[in-house]
Amino acid sequence: MADRMIHPVLTADAPLPAGHYAQAVRAGDLLHISGQLPIRADGAPLDDMTFEAQAAQAIDNLLAILTAAGGTPAHLVRVTAYIVGVEHWPRFNAVYAARLGDARPARSVVPVPELHYGYLVEVDAVAWLADA
After folding, report:
1. pTM of the predicted model, to two decimals?
2. Sign, Cα dihedral of 59, 6, 131, 128
């Protein structure tokens, strides 16, 4: 019966999965959001490919999925960001803080040598939705 507590989350407000995975999976009160790249929901390329624009789009995708599951940034308990180039860390932090406002989940920022399609940032998260 445990499978009845595990449900995929899908929204048209974020890019549809391009592989064998869900945008997010709700398991009981936990929501696990898959890694989000800076791809617009309609799949069109970003007009602005600066690091800040990419970070904003990736975070907005994550937040759209969180919203579709009934959550808000206050429900986030952990976020992991993968960024190409450690020099982008302060710029990522500024965009992240602007998007999350007062929410301060646990977070890791992991510098990586490259990401799929040449993007510069990817984010994933876990949220607690007990009261959502």
Report:
1. 0.94
2. negative
